[in-house]
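Slide 14.
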Amino acid sequence: MSANREAMLEKLADLDAQHAVAVAGGGEKYVDRHHARGKLTARERIELLLDPGSAFLELSPLAGWGSDFTVGASVVTGIGVVEGVECLISANDPTVKGGASNPWTVKKIFRASQIAEENNLPTISLVESGGADLPTQKEIFIPGGKLFRDLTRASARRQPTIALVFGNSTAGGAYVPGMSDYTVFVRGGAKVFLGGPPLVKMATGEESDDESLGGAEMHARVSGLADYLAEDEHDAIRIGRRIVARLNRRKPAALGFDTGPGGPAQPAVVSFSEPDADPEGLLDLVPTDLKEPFDPREVITRIVDGTSAHNGRPFDEFKPLYGTSLVTGWAQLHGRPIGILANAQGVLFSEEAQKATQFIQLANQADTPLLFLHNTTGYMVGKDYEQGGIIKHGAMMINAVSNSTVPHLSVIMGASYGAGNYGMNGRAYDPRFLFTWPSAKSAVMGPAQLAGVLSIVARAAAEAKGQAYDEEGDAGMRAMVEQMVEEQSLPYALSGMLYDDGVIDPRDTRTVLAICLSVIENAPIKGAEGFGVFRP
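Slide 15: predicted structure.
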């Protein structure tokens, strides 16, 4: 077994453990209590909602990692197929503090809403939440209003919103079904009110009970908030699936979809072939020391369609002899065209930036989505490179990335430091989807470089004051800074802050990207008609 593979397998074992924490929700005690009440867990509800045998692309499963809150942020979000329609699904996890929303819950739902908006997806909310986590309400209340705004704007864009209410949906949470296009309430389970009996008593002196104040039957018969009254949770999920079946959703006709009689358009059969190289080999590629380069072509050949897919050429490289530390070219992935930009040797020079700029423009002319594979330490520094125009060339590449309108997908394989993260379409540049490998690291610069810069600045300051420099203190400072930056740049920390959509096994990269490419087809794909000013 290679050292690279052994190190990656260790990281993957740790990743499985981290995901297991999220899947466990509030823990065995609270899951058992939930089941004893005759209720399904959030993940069980999702499994029943999805078409049998279909995939579920979970998003941000490690949200809140490293914080004081339970990993996963008390909500499960992802994309799944319901009655043949790709939908954004959001499910409160009532085993975690009754499904109460904390600051990370809000951020996770916002990210899910953004994905639904950009990819023209219906949203299905599986609701059972005790509302806001009151001790952290100051971090939730003001930004949290965006959740309801997003629901109403989705409806205005004709992106259906469906709420299946299984339990509590109180206070601000009552507006989730209130602002959804379709609502299904579970008899004896759903409780939807702006203020529960205790609050009503304190505010008005009125005596009331859960059912008369906000029960499912009351809302179905009296208030009209419930469109459908379900007998139990399974019935609610059945009704939810029938609602989706009647949405008459169709992907854009230009993408070659079969609009046969009797239901929503189904994707036409797309021919593709498996990669020429075994994806299992991806575990051998990334060095344990990210300063060591690796050839991204070895990644590309393991994730794109093989030689029989497109005239015997799995990857048509663009400008292979120019700007060689950035690999660019065209391929197909599960039968869908894609342009790829992949860092080869880590550093981006002026030639690479200019090459990337041209390639991004060509992809926009051809309405072709772009995939960015990161392993970069950033743009090159030094007197010769500054005089050669590295700033304006790097700015040119970032201009192209910023103004490109074809869908972007990003995978951070190794390093993604400095402005290289920006030029390669990092989170700040709103890729449709961004995933990281367990080997990924991302920061303003490498830990040793950042600590070294701080040391040089501190040494110069001491010399300017005529003071002796504390070498022992400097060594301690550098070690502390390197450790801090190393911890902050690890994939779990970044994923916990919602800076990616998930940490994935490299061997799953092709499948994850294939799902993403299918999802982005729900909205028209059209390249930019203009870019910002390119400085000559």
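Speaker note: Confidence is low (pLDDT under 50) at residues 254-265.
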